[in-house]
Specification:
Blueprint lengths: L13 H10 L11 H8 L3 H13 L10
Length: 68
């Protein structure tokens, strides 16, 4: 599994990978971006990307693990 953002080299977590798949291409297997670089790419704040991740998680999207 890829572990670094292709743009800045930041270590990726499962939320970063899930957000990349949700926003760019669900079938992607490489080229993932961290939330910071995703925010930059889409012209929004990093906080907004994190808000969307929580919305998707709460709606049951399988790209995001449920928090305990």
């Amino acid at each position: 599994m890829p572990n670094k953002c292709v743009k800045c080299g930041t270590e990726l977590g499962s939320d970063d990978i899930g957000a990349s798949k949700k926003l760019i291409n669900r079938g992607m297997t490489e080229g993932f971006l961290c939330t910071h670089c995703l925010a930059e790419r889409f012209g929004v704040t990093e906080a907004r990307v994190r808000e969307k991740i929580e919305e998707w998680r709460e709606s049951g999207c399988l790209l995001f693990a449920k928090k305990n």
